[in-house]
Amino acid sequence: MVQSSKGRIDWGYNDLKDLAQLGRAIISEFLGTAILVWLATATCAQFRGNGETVHVSLTVGFTVATVIQTLAHVGGCHINPAVTLGFVIMGKTSALRAILYVIVQLAGAVAGTEIYKITTPENLRGIGLCSNRVNTAAGVTAEQALVVEIVLTFCLVLVILAVSDKNRRPHHGGTGPFIEGLTVCAAFLMGLRYSGVSLNPARSFGPAILSNYWEHHWIYWVGPLSGAAIAGYMYRNWFKAPKPQKEQNANT
């Protein structure tokens, strides 16, 4: 159930009052996701020296930080259905906005993958256009990869909800995008050899649909969305920063 921070269901009627702003936010989600997926897939193209753990981790982490720093003021720059789910559970994103965001995130992921496909020689595009893959060659099972995706996405969404909490922003001085990028780097450094690290159903969806490569694809939906749901619930109920004392006094 989608609820506002006050406990009421937020269907998004207020979003309809400013369609221009909503349109800008939708465009920014499409653009941000396309950039992220293009660069993420390009890191594992079969060039010599490409695809190393540190290389992939830094590329994706820096991309996330840069895109958020550039576009967050427009509509939040979720660029990830799991992040959108976390904000929905927090009551910070309406049902209407969430649905529109997820649609354009998936479309942006397809566009980003198409750019990768166009700009990369066919023999270097990798399996499934660099789709996320469970490292079965090393003995990693689907269940183990699922747990990795749940835990890493939980950590990422928890961090994102924390740094975007307006009641604690003075504690990190506007460094939110950098912190989020570092979290992504850490997640990739840890998990790349397990599940290929998605954290983001859109990132997995773009390559899968254009290459028709669906092996273990369910993991990259169930894992991130489960982790995000747990993080959203926990932050909303246990970790949310209290309102500043002055604001509390003004409301009483």
UniProtKB/TrEMBL annotation:
Principal location: membrane
InterPro entries (alphabetical): Aquaporin-like, Aquaporin_transptr, MIP, MIP_CS
NCBIfam families: MIP
SUPFAM superfamilies, per the entry: Aquaporin-like
Protein name as annotated: Aquaporin
Membrane topology (UniProt): Multi-pass membrane protein
Source organism, top-level taxon: Eukaryota
Keywords: Cell membrane, Membrane, Transmembrane, Transmembrane helix, Transport
Subcellular locations according to the entry: Cell membrane
GO function terms (MF aspect): water channel activity
Recorded family membership: Belongs to the MIP/aquaporin (TC 1.A.8) family.
Organism: Homalodisca liturata
